[in-house]
Design goal:
The chain has a domain of 94 residues. It is an alpha/beta fold and 345 residues long. α10 packs across α12. The radius of gyration is 21 Å and the shape is globular. The longest helix is centred in the C-terminal third of the chain and has 29 residues. Helix content is 48%, strand content 15%.
Length: 345
């Protein structure tokens, strides 16, 4: 069987790292054909101690340091250290089915693909209504658009050619052909890499019947920070690629501009404020409708208010982040120093 290198970027993930390692150990792929490289961003919460316990017991698990502390640097360091013919990225915020590795490796070969991935089953990051509402919002089309891997695909089991997949299972030769992950992109580095891969003629497939259990953020503060960063780095991805990416990534920007610009112009042209009021009112009605329908489906009407806020937080933060990214990267030509960049968890 083909040798597989699993790479896991992590930082301060003591609540989740054992879960992902245990799910790898429970997989049906021969362990003598596996190596697991955990690239840790100098965790301070006990994560490293947990990883070391596994590494001391199981020689195919290794810990490597990522002093720059951000995801693309972690991925690149792990790839440089990898020995397998296939590179499979996993995330510490998830648990994987027992056939995950074998299914992705098989699909990579059978489909003659360059990257394959599985769908997300988004789970609450903790108990209570807020984490549940966030998880539901992040697996609904109103929350995330047509991001296929985030949505419940029902009985659709056939592989789907797509623009991106979570985490990814790649032939190692792909990195020799188009390079590593861009280390300026704290977020969205996988989107940029996959766009680059497709531009080079690569093929990416989603396996809808393979489900990753992904744990969403626990509270609105973490949700805001995460989606603000997604929005912020979007314009930098566009700049690097020299073209726009997927339409869904611009909808929050349009929403924020539709309420923000009228508010700025209103002191000079008072009637223009009606445009902003109308835009937000229409958004609020649609948001309320989907929040109510989801809460009814879950038989918890108390969820509706938290769902409304989950949708609003994700859309506003992404849109505002996108505006800041346009100003920084397009207008001001800002350059990021990787050593000074940190990521919010």
């Amino acid at each position: 069987m083909i040798e597989v290198s699993i790479i896991i970027p992590c930082r301060n993930e003591k609540d989740y790292i054992a879960g992902v390692l245990d799910s790898i150990l429970a997989n049906d792929y021969p362990k003598e054909k596996l190596e697991v490289i955990v690239s840790d961003g100098m965790s301070e919460d006990g994560t490293r101690s947990i990883i070391e316990q596994y590494a001391n017991r199981l020689p195919f698990i290794r810990l490597v340091d990522n002093p720059k502390k951000i995801v693309p640097c972690a991925l690149n360091e792990a790839i440089r250290n990898a020995k397998g013919q296939i590179i499979m990225r996993m995330d510490a915020h998830a648990v994987y089915p027992s056939n995950y590795i074998s299914r992705l490796v098989s699909a990579l070969q059978d489909l003659k693909a360059d990257n394959v991935g599985a769908a997300w089953e988004t789970l609450p990051g903790g108990p209570g209504l807020v984490p549940k509402a966030i998880a539901l919002a992040l697996s609904h089309p109103f929350g995330v658009g047509n991001a296929t891997y985030r949505l419940n695909n029902g009985e659709k089991c056939a592989p789907v050619e797509t623009d991106t997949v979570p985490f990814g299972c790649y032939r190692k030769a792909v990195f020799d052909r188009i390079g590593l992950f861009d280390e300026e992109l704290v977020r969205n580095q996988d989107n940029e890499f996959n766009e680059r891969l497709k531009k080079a003629g690569g093929r990416i497939f989603l396996l809808p019947d393979v489900k990753i259990q992904y744990f969403a953020r626990k509270n609105f503060s973490k949700l805001w920070k995460m989606f603000y960063q997604y929005g912020y780095f979007g314009p930098l991805v566009d700049k690097k690629l020299g073209k726009p990416t997927r339409l869904r990534r611009y909808v929050p920007l349009v929403f924020v501009l539709s309420i923000g610009l009228p508010a700025l112009i209103m002191p000079f042209f008072p009637k223009i404020g009606l445009v902003g009021v109308g835009s937000f009112s229409l958004y609020a009605l649609v948001n309320l409708l989907f929040s109510y329908l989801l809460a009814t489906r879950e038989k918890q009407l108390a969820l509706a208010a938290f769902l409304f806020y989950s949708f609003l937080v994700s859309h506003l933060s992404y849109g505002l982040g996108h505006i800041r990214g346009i100003l920084d990267f397009w207008v001001l030509g800002k350059k990021l120093e990787v050593e000074r960049v940190t990521i919010s968890r």
